[in-house]
Each structure stands twice: as C-alpha cells, then as structure tokens.
Amino acid sequence: MTYCVGLKFDRGLIFMSDTRTNAGVDNISAFRKMHVWEEPGERVIVLLSSGNLATTQGVISLLDERAKAPSERHPYLLGTPSMFQTAKLVGETLREVIAAATPHGQKQDSFAASLILGGQINGTEPRLFQIYPEGNFIEATEDTPFFQIGETKYGRPILLRAYERDMSFEEATKLLMVSFDSTVKSNLSVGLPLDMLWYENGAHRIKQKKRINGEDAYYRAISDGWGQALKNAFKSLPDYPG
Predict the structure, then answer these.
(1) pTM for the whole structure
(2) Distance separating alpha carbons of residues 79 and 67, to the nearest angstrom
(3) Do the Cβ atoms of 3 and 17 come closer than 8 Å?
(4) Structural domains of the chain, with CATH
(5) Measured between alpha carbons, how far is 159 from 166 in angstroms, rounded to an integer?
(6) Among the four residues 40, 72, 105, 167, which has the most C-beta atoms within 10 Å?
C-alpha cells in the first residue's frame, strides 16, 4: 500500500508521497513514488504512483526511455503541447504496460496502478489529474482541488476540513503533514520517509523538493502537536449528560 496526495491551490501545486512498499508484514522495502521531469523555464511534470510496483516502474521506464529517444511512433513526455495531452500520454502508457503484463484471459486487477499527474507547460495553466488503471483520467476543479491515491481514508478528513484556496505553501505543507501523520499512525503499510515538492504557478521550475524522514524536526513537531491538539479538543467537548 502507499499514500500520495496532489493538491492545487491559488499559489500553485504541492505533492507528497510516502516510500513504503510491502508484500506482507515481513517483506517491507522503500521505493520512490514521486517522479519528476523538469525543463527549467519550459515545463515541470510531476507523477505520483500507487499500486503494482512492477507496473508503475514499467510506466516510468517507458516514459523516460521515449523522452530520451523521441519518435513519430511514440509521443514523448517532454514534447506534449499541454498538460491535458500529457495526461492522455501517461494514461495510454499505463494502459499499454498493464495490457502487456496481463496473460490472455486473466483479470488485470493484480497489475493495476493509479497515478496523480500535475505540473505546468509554458504558455498553459498549471493542471492536476488523477489517472486510473484503464488509462482514463479526471482533472482537479475548485470543487475537488486535491487527489489522493493508495490508503486515502485516514488522511482525508483533515484535507476536507482545513483546505483553503488562498493558503500559503507553508500552510499547505502543514496540512499535508497532518494528513500523512494520521495515515502513518493508522496503517503500517504507509511509512516514512516522505517526498515533498512545491511548484509555484508560472515559475516553470521546482520551488522546493525535499525528503522528510522520521528525525525531521518539523515533522516531529507536527506529529506531537497534532496528537496533543486532538486530545485537547476532545477534552473541551461537553460530556454526555447521562
């Protein structure tokens, strides 16, 4: 299992993903689930992945390979004219990898993967998409400004309650930290370190990219502070009258 979030707000986009991959409680390892393609001044593309690890690695490898050796047969990631076309390309690549891995007549569920794609190409607006195993996708809107993939339920309530369009990058980071801390504490299949990336509207370059481990002072302060804040909020509620 995994947990990834892509969030869109007035100032830009913020992404966060964990790194835990497990095939049972005695087979846990770490793999990067955030992948970035950047041409400073031209485009930034961020892809978060959840699901079958072989499938997601196959998608990333194909996108990388075709970006380095573009051809008329295969459109390439760094040559798409818009983020919509980028989402279409990634969706088609995901569908291609799943189909190639699935024996004839076998269900594709065990090879499934989901993706979050976001970024900006020069001359177009920043956009955020969720891509399904079938290769189709949806786009973030004002009503749905964030996407989650993987283990979503524990970190969702704080996103729904605390998100504001005009928040700063620092506030958005705090929001995602709380969301991830709630998930990490509730599900052993999600774990640190975390990868985080900021993209500011119109910059066409990464604003900040960071890996956060368990010793990170800010993460520890958020984790401890959120736990105490919940206890204080619970105690402040009226007791049942009996």
Answers:
(1) 0.95
(2) 8
(3) yes
(4) 3-235 (3.60.20.10)
(5) 14
(6) 167
